[in-house]
């Protein structure tokens, strides 16, 4: 079947414009993903450029065709910038404008022919598409099959534009009428159009995956401090416990429970805004003072917790003292207000290949209570339990606090 160049050009223009309009409508509905919005805008610009190019070629208006090619380059540059912003970099309008402006200046200054402009346009678009593909393949990004599909489709689309390079040399359109007689030109347009349609679906999948990751993170992150919340903390503790069991080598695991002293008084005297600042400041102090492999989180209110893998009780006590001293020295004034913030810390530890998470946290909580009773702004340790002692302590917790034990078991079951 013979493909008609003019028909394919009209279909490609209409399809690209519709893709852009649909993506922009989706973005306008919830405005959660800038990637969808910028990608939709790029398709609108591409659609307008393709339409202008088809009209200019039919009416034999080289100036219109040149401006259309500049618009097509601009639309592709917006795609590149959209991918850059998706990777956390700022959308740079100057970089977008630089490509079409450079093309127009070269075309105007050197008065190049139609086929030369087509050659330059195709090479520029292919380069921008490959730059866009490289953004989706940047190392350190979240692994996603959709990202790799987008990269492959962009490379395929770039290849469809690169087809034009040898064709403009071997079959100059204006000189030989190659655009009307060769099946390669409409085929290249058709391949590029199909790739743009497929890319639109992939972009939607990428945006959906990003939104799901954000929701997953928000569900496990304390909104005020940015630390893992209770749920995320216990999930991490459970994963650590399973890792210890798989190693089958006895190791020391320590837990801290930290509670800000007289926090209600700070809220009453200075207001909840100052109280929130105190919580945020303590969270930063906790993260900056403890080692990177320590799992920290906010249990709720003014209570925090830290899990220290491969850490005996003596080292955990020293780490807790570092946190206490650091916060006592730096938390005396928050935002210029003499709040006098301090923290009490309870520490517990277990040595073995398995341990009951609820029992370990219960012992750390008991040590925290002892620190409060002893005058606050201090560290108390519950001591280290062996495997057998931990089992006895777990049974005691089951008898004395069955609701707490059942709640912990249900949480561990859901996390697993």
UniProtKB/TrEMBL annotation:
CDD domains: GGDEF (cd01949). The keyword Transmembrane applies. The chain crosses the membrane at residues 6-28, 35-59, 65-83, 90-112, 148-167, 187-207. One of its GO terms (biological process) is negative regulation of bacterial-type flagellum-dependent cell motility. Residues 251-384 form the GGDEF domain. Its EC number is 2.7.7.65. PROSITE patterns: GGDEF. GO terms for molecular function: diguanylate cyclase activity. It catalyses: 2 GTP = 3',3'-c-di-GMP + 2 diphosphate. Coiled coil: none annotated. InterPro entries: Diguanylate_Cyclase, GGDEF_dom, Nucleotide_cyclase, Rev_trsase/Diguanyl_cyclase. Keywords: Membrane, Transmembrane, Transmembrane helix. GO terms for cellular component: plasma membrane. PANTHER family: DIGUANYLATE CYCLASE DGCM-RELATED, REGULATORY COMPONENTS OF SENSORY TRANSDUCTION SYSTEM. NCBIfam families: GGDEF. This is diguanylate cyclase. It comes from Hyphomicrobium sulfonivorans. The lineage of its organism: Bacteria, Pseudomonadati, Pseudomonadota, Alphaproteobacteria, Hyphomicrobiales.
